[in-house]
Specification:
Blueprint: E1 7-10, H1 14-21, E2 26-29, H2 35-41, E3 48-51, E4 61-63, E5 69-72, H3 77-82, H4 84-89, H5 91-99, H6 103-108, H7 111-118, H8 137-143, E6 147-152, E7 155-160, H9 161-167, E8 174-180, E9 187-195, E10 202-212, E11 218-226, E12 233-234, H10 236-242, H11 247-252, H12 269-277, H13 292-312
Parallel strand pairs: 1-3, 2-3
Antiparallel strand pairs: 4-5, 5-8, 6-7, 6-8, 9-10, 10-11, 11-12
Helix pairs in contact: 5-8, 10-12, 12-13
């Protein structure tokens, strides 16, 4: 049962939707997998629901001239997970979509809705219960270095995945889609997750993107974590330690086996865990029976698994 009263409008155009959402109390309705639950439990309120499902232009996957992809915000998670172009350009994003909820959720939930729900985690500095609101896709788009396309009453704009992870969705804007850059030679990615058993939200999830030389050396790496951190977070210090650009720091931090990729092979589990032990605990949330120390370790374990799979697919 919905506990609050609200108006309902089915937007006919993107401009109409943007104008309606600029008004106080309006919220966008796409798949409804997060929003409707909030309304039923009383965790969220809305003066008006603006239904976006009639905006056909926000659906689907299109190839760009640069070899990348443009993905509409109303593309369902099931469509993302099975699209061969998404799996080729951003395997971590496809895997993250497949890891969400169950088949029913994936066939109703959308790319834009999953991203937007993550902005409701908690205000900066308030980490209690943060994992309850974490979603999977923000880490994947962050690792992919995607660009978000937005619409608001003031017009169209774009936002980097990094800015979105840090600042959230600007007030009065809706996500219309994302642009995924074309993968370069030797590039691959992977996603790993430990879900909450009841909600299927991530206790911790990690997305990685790697670039390897033909000889096997790791020359590029992006690591993004969600669930274990207050919001989706990229870990450049871990990336530097594992690509050998901070080899001395890694050894000084007790890496044991030495820097993970140090101009040679992909990092092993011991090197990955050492890199995470070198990170301050305050980067990770606490609560619900887990410590920041545990979540830091779990993030390292999942990163090691993701790197193992990602590097196995590159040549």
């Amino acid at each position: 049962m919905i506990l609050t009263d609200f108006d309902y409008v089915r937007a006919a155009t993107l401009d109409e939707a943007a104008a309606l959402l600029a008004e106080p109390g309006s919220r966008a309705l796409a798949g409804g997998q997060s929003l409707l639950v909030e309304l039923k439990t009383g965790e969220g309120t809305a003066a008006r629901l603006v239904d976006l499902r009639g905006l056909a232009g926000l659906r689907g996957v299109q190839e760009t001239g640069a070899g990348g992809l443009r993905v509409g915000a109303l593309t369902t998670l099931a469509e993302l997970a099975r699209d061969p172009r998404v799996r080729a350009v951003s395997p971590a994003l496809a895997e993250a979509a497949r890891a969400v909820g169950d088949p029913q959720v994936r066939h109703l939930g959308t790319l834009g809705g999953n991203l937007a729900a993550a902005t409701d985690i908690t205000p900066a500095g308030a980490v209690s219960g943060a994992r309850d609101k974490a979603t999977d896709l923000p880490a994947a788009v962050l690792a992919a270095d995607a660009t978000l396309r937005l619409a608001g009453a003031g017009g169209r704009t774009t936002m980097t995945a990094g800015d979105f992870a840090r600042d959230g969705l600007p007030t009065g804007c809706l996500i219309t889609g994302i642009d995924l850059p074309a993968p370069g030679p030797g590039e691959a990615g992977a996603f790993e997750k430990m879900p909450d058993r009841a909600s299927r939200y991530p206790v911790c999830a990690v997305a990685v993107r790697v670039v390897r030389e033909p000889g096997g050396g790791l020359t590029g790496l992006r690591v993004a974590v969600t669930g274990a951190t207050p919001r989706a977070t990229r870990l450049p210090a871990v990336e530097e330690l594992l690509t050998g650009t901070a080899a001395g720091t890694a050894q000084g931090a007790g890496a044991g086996a030495g820097p993970g990729a140090a101009l040679g092979t992909a990092p092993g589990t011991a090197q990955v865990l050492a890199a995470f032990r070198a990170q301050p605990e305050h980067l990770f949330v606490t609560g619900r029976g887990t410590s920041a120390e545990y979540l830091r370790h779990l993030s390292g374990v999942l990163t090691a698994r993701a790197l193992t799979r990602a590097t196995a697919t590159t040549t």
